Amino acid sequence: MHELRLEGVRKAYGPVLAVTDVDLLVPAGELVCFLGPSGCGKTTLLRIVAGLEAPSAGRVLLDEADITPVPTDRRQFGMVFQSLALFGHLSIGDNIAYPLRIRGVPAARRRARVEELLELVRLPGVAERSVTQISGGQRQRIAIARALAMEPKLLLLDEPLSALDAKLREAMQIELRLLQQRLGITSVLVTHDQREAMTMADRIVVMGERRIQQVGRPLDIYRNPANTFVADFIGTSNLLPVRLAPGGVRFADRVVQVDRVPAGLADGAAATLLVRPEELHVRPGLDAAGAGLPARVAFVRDLGSIVEVHVDCAGSRLVATALRKDQPPLAPGQEVALDLPAEACVVLAA
Ligand code: ATP
């Protein structure tokens, strides 16, 4: 297993800054996901890892050795890109064996390795078939088998599942993650899909505005986003404009209790309150005791297993989700009280 490290990496294309200030450790055996919106620099960063781009500054290290000047074909990394780039005129077996053939591996060894890899990606016995005769999900597995053919030190995946339809894509996320864990191969995955990142990653690198915004385990990032950009990008968020007040934050004319506030924010300072939809509870009727925030139901989306309630509260639209069996029936226009548990309220600097 191999460890990857990026130190002070920066890349500019002439006057265009693609990515900057990247310091990152990808521990041996982990799958790390670069997640962010279009144009945030995630592909550029992966191409720097692959050696397809030279950084304008900084270093790429593999097991503490500086590989920044090492050309792509000498890095021994396996790569799968969105376009797959399988050869239509070659059989499945010849596609997988291609990297072995160009490195002069003898035919008998190539055949044995192809069978081994087809077993690994759960497609045994299809070596003679044409890549044009198989489904999108199967082609995906062939591309992964080919990337693994040379027993790469790292597996680099750039939006490898984005051409698949939603259902197959979700199934392949699990399959690919299980394969990566079984092989223990250090991997980097680029995606703009936060569900994919949450499903597959040991650690997520959230990127935005050409730099890393936060690195952490998926649930830690979900629960404690570093800023409003991350909160908004990972999962669904209710983000409310608030001001710091003694014991909590002021929203509309109420004080909402919170357990923690970021250091350095004084009373009266503007901030953003994050409450996840599953932490927001909607009770029918106005709250005489005054503990809940008064709101009005705007829309109820009944999804069968869960119910999503959209409410308007002091000029903000909020979304609450609950298991259907736990949510008392509500109708649009109905007056309700909102409960925001203090431990689930995250205050972010505005
Ligand atoms: P996407 O998800 O759309 O692929 P990304 O997060 O992978 O986006 P990059 O492709 O890394 O983003 O691009 C980051 C920035 O660098 C963008 O502003 C892009 O226009 C710019 N850029 C990327 N490659 C080049 C290039 N070869 N020449 C000039 N600018 C480039």
What does this structure look like?
With 350 residues, this protein is α+β, with helices and mostly antiparallel strands. It folds into 2 domains: 4-228, 3-Layer(aba) Sandwich (Rossmann fold); 236-349, Beta Barrel (OB fold (Dihydrolipoamide Acetyltransferase, E2P)). 25% of the residues lie in helices and 35% in strands. It has 9 helices and 20 strands. Helix 3 packs across helix 4 (107-120), helix 3 packs parallel to helix 5 and helix 4 packs across helix 5 (136-148). The protein is elongated. The chain binds adenosine-5'-triphosphate. Residues 13, 16, 18, 36, 38-44, 192 line the site of adenosine-5'-triphosphate.
What is the β-strand count?
20
Count of distinct structural domains: 2
Identify the CATH class of the largest domain. Alpha Beta
* Secondary-structure element string: EEEHEEHEHHHEHEHEEHHEEEEEEEEEE
Bound molecules: adenosine-5'-triphosphate
Task: Specify the CATH architecture of the largest domain.
Answer: 3-Layer(aba) Sandwich
Strand content: 25-35%
Comma- or semicolon-separated keywords:
Rossmann fold; 9 helices; alpha+beta; binds adenosine-5'-triphosphate; 350 residues; elongated; OB fold (Dihydrolipoamide Acetyltransferase, E2P)
Structure, briefly:
By secondary structure, this protein is α+β, with helices and mostly antiparallel strands. The protein is 25% helix and 35% strand.
Walk me through the topology.
Elements: E1 4-13, E2 16-26, E3 31-35, H1 42-50, E4 57-62, E5 65-66, H2 72-75, E6 77-81, H3 92-102, H4 107-120, H5 136-148, E7 154-158, H6 166-183, E8 187-191, H7 194-200, E9 203-208, E10 211-216, H8 218-223, H9 228-233, E11 238-245, E12 248-251, E13 254-257, E14 270-275, E15 281-284, E16 293-302, E17 306-313, E18 316-323, E19 335-339, E20 346-349
Parallel strand pairs: 3-8, 3-9, 6-7, 7-8
Antiparallel strand pairs: 1-2, 1-4, 4-5, 9-10, 11-12, 11-14, 12-13, 14-20, 15-19, 16-17, 16-19, 17-18
Helix pairs in contact: 3-4, 3-5, 4-5
